[in-house]
Amino acid sequence: MHADFHVHSNYSDGQSLPEMVAAAERAGLDAVGITDHCNVSARSVPMQAKRELGFNLDLTYERRRDALDRLRAAADVSIYDGVELDYDPRDEPELETFVDEAGFDYTIGSVHELDGECIFDRSSFADCTEAERRTLVDDYYHKIVALLEFDAFDVLGHVDAIERTPELRGYAGTEHYERVADALVESSTVPEINAGTVTVEYGKYHPAPEFLEVLRDRDVQFVPGTDAHRPDEVLDRVPLLADRFAEVGLESTSPVA
Q: Containing H/E element for 117?
């Protein structure tokens, strides 16, 4: 694997830009995309979460861009100026405006929120009934399809990320996968094979094997992304991603024109 298009830095919840770029060099990559988290919603709940987490790339992306330019001058790896944007259908006007104005090299769209809660916050779903959990999973995949129909992103981030949360795991099925696959065929957005959850309990990659097979039946292409937040994650996950692409017989594609 020659490129990693999903890496975070200190401009969201990762480690410093120089450390992450140096890790990409040590991993033997030809290119790395820095894609810090960003939310541009005007709704009160996401705005409060931004303040609490300090995710302010919508205000600091130009400063980060200057830093990337300086790093490029000395780096032995090509560095792309990307972003991972939180998607919700209610935020489409703000998203469209920001993407047009900011001019990133490419954009990743991801669904991180359900019913006002982060999908990775187990405590938010611990008391849900079986029926409520099924509805939440349905809602998650409705959002994924809406993201693809919006067609404003270059990459679809960790398509089945909801499986990371044990309380919401196992409710998705072929009907969800088929709907996403059909939407991908009609969209210019490309999914990623994401190595952001290397766990024994869940697995190593998004999408999960059964989901991947449905997508492969549609001849969908994939972008590689470690979803790394620390240098050691880049070093550990780059070989894993290379192995995954080789294992399933896929060639990676690039979101950069």
A: strand 117-118
